[in-house]
Write the structure tokens for this entry.
Amino acid sequence: MANTQKQARDVIGTWTKATAAPCADKYPATLAFSTSTYRGARGPGQGMVWWDAGIYRLEGAGTIVIATATDELVTYPISLQTDQFEITDAEGCRVTYRRDTRTP
Amino acid sequence: MCKCSETGSEAGSMKTPVTFAGPTMKPLVPLSRQVPFGEDGAEDQTPGSISPPATITPVTPCKLDFREGCYQINFKPTASLVTFEGTLRVDRSAPDGGADQLIVSGDLYSRLPVIGPITTPPVGPADGDEAGEPIAAASMSIAGALSTVDAAIVANPILKPTIPIFARARYHSYLKVTSVSAPVLVPSPTKCVLTIIAEQFNYTQPPVGQFKGSFPNAPSRTVTLKLFKVPAPFPFSLTGGPFYEGRLFEGAVDKGAVTLAWVSKFFRRATLEIDTLVGAVRPVPVPDGSGGTDFFDKVFARTGWQLAVVQDQLNVPVPGGVVPTNCWSSADLHALMTAVRNPATNLDTDWRVHMIVVPAKLGCGRGVMYDQIGVPREGCASFSDDGYPTSDSSNFGLAANKKQRDVPRAFLRSATHELTHTLNQIHQEQETSADNSIMTTTPSVADVLGGPATGEPGVFPDQIKLAHNTTVRHHLNHMPDPVIRPGGWPFASWFPTGAPQAADRHDFAASELSLEVTAGEGRVALGQPLDLSWTMTNTSGVPLRVPNDISTEALFASITVTDGEGRERPVRPFAIVCEHAKIGELEPGKSVSASTKVFWSTAGFAFERPGRYRVDVAVMWSAQGVSVGVQAGVDVFVDYPSSDADNHAAGLVMHPDVGKWVALGGGAYHLGEACSRLLSLSETAAPARALGVGVRDAAGPRVLDGFADLLPDRNKVARLYPGLSTDAGGRAARTSAAAPPARKRARKSRARK
């Protein structure tokens, strides 16, 4: 529990997508995680994103649960580091986000 | 990847003109927008006008009743067995409907021939409209056509008419009404004519087993309805509303008879069936603050829908293998829906949404539109024992850490949110901005209400607005039937690419800041990069704060290519170069420009195949926290290859490595495949000249025009890749070191449009 709480604090902040692969198109260009909620913002030229707004939580060492655009809670394996995290979705798409260090 | 922002100066805009641009993005479907209710003046008598004293023309005031609501529309093309029926929604209270608050939209369904009343065909030439090849015929004048006596088209007699619902497979077209007008006065005995002009978008049904059809980017045709109000025939006389009959024209050609019959004050209707699992509590009506109650039907009535709520089964047994007080999977919810909903559910006769209420627990998201399984959007779920943990928002007020069942107003809101998802509406954080409306997520609503700085201070849950915002209301009432109705288009499939992340985006007026987009050529060959440039000019009289770099690499500008079928493809920058980019002052009359070659990006080739395209450039930035911008575009035609040389050249260059070479501006010698293919391209003109063929063939394929300044240096390639074949097709190079230099075309000297 303590580890998950620490992880949750580690993910709080603003992140920018670093994956340009087409399979990652449905993930927002930027993500802002608060305590239990997140907001996703599209980048220029981007279509519908499936992480747009909702709740999230980290479960265990390598799992994140995110509410998607339909409010469905979807579980993703996550590799979380200080300034980068990577998730892999059900279709095998690996999406990497890097922390935006200019925002608190 | 850096994030460019308005750094450099935080003094704010010298001038930030704000123009409300309506919905901030354009769905990938036709959608009616505001229209003024015009007054035809050709036959008006202008009060106070000077007229010959010896003649006084009697006039008749026109008080046409074109009240708000749903009209059943019937269209019988002349000399056709196939007729059309549908609905026309006259929305006269649209907040985004302009000065007249008017938006009108319609949907037509084809109707197979039936044995019915024999109608007298109109006087005039036959017309093969809709039923096959058009029959060339002389046109009847509009006056003649309007004077023709026709039997009224009446639906099969039924009880009091209501909003009709037709089968999805019969859907034919969408009517985007662009003009509504009627005279104020007409000289007696002239009839008062209601004129409705609409763009008709013919629908292509989806392949068998799929649910998303398509609309064309441009209207299939424009039609004009000329209508007279007549006494409503039975059974429409039962509604108490107006009835119109008249003719439908395409240009000046009379296409057939049309009737409009008012059937309801609502625009659309649907049914909500609620089943509740044992242990769960379903949402209940809540006080509306005026002595009455609010419930699902009232919320939708405010939007303009007639929603019948069927509170069906209680104490539905828990399915085997499911723990009802855990979070539910979409599969389990879908299986439960199919097991418990009314077995007579027929989405072709009833827009029916199923809602299952289960307990779940805190942290499950309060509800879900789970149905992306099989037939889209048949059902949703609401979680009575989920709730409002303070971890989601610190602004839940008295609802903090309580279950939904204990906070009826918030529970009703979140359940209506899931219902509205089922009608294909999306979160407003993504479409517009977070607000106190149904389709904003619950934590965001609480935060909007959170305090004086959040825009709409109030208290959660008491001051939750149980209403859809203007954007969602517009979609629910005016998007085409297939997009909205349960069992129609998949969720969010109407959402366009390239739409801005709108947060109250405001577009500049052309008299303030203009954007001109020019293409090097209006027609390019397949495989030929398009030279595109755009110039943003301060046309106001004051300095404006705008981006100093509007190239796509600086991330303020985006390019979207739309093909003839309405499919959009972004053209993303291959490299991000934005550290220098900032918001700075642009003096009146001054401009900032950028250019690029539209060819390939990580989203693929911009012009995959021949045909017509639209290339749009949008420049957007934030001014004092408000998204502002300008947008413009050009039409481009990609030619079909007209020779073997053209075909061969297109095959050479339409390779991702060549795409990367172009995206990098050439000189990317690490891309060996690109080097090989482009060298082959440069050789395509040489053999023709050697054979002494005509000037056109000697000039080589047209694709070469777009690569004039991009071809690799032959000698450098030879050094880097000594064994490289110049023909990516596998043939050995025909020429040796005596190969002619890459042709330099006079690209830059071409006048830009």
Q: What stands out?
A: The mean pLDDT of chain A is 89. Chain A has one domain: 2-99. The longest helix of chain A spans residues 2-11. Residues 3 and 61 of chain A are 8 Å apart (CA to CA).
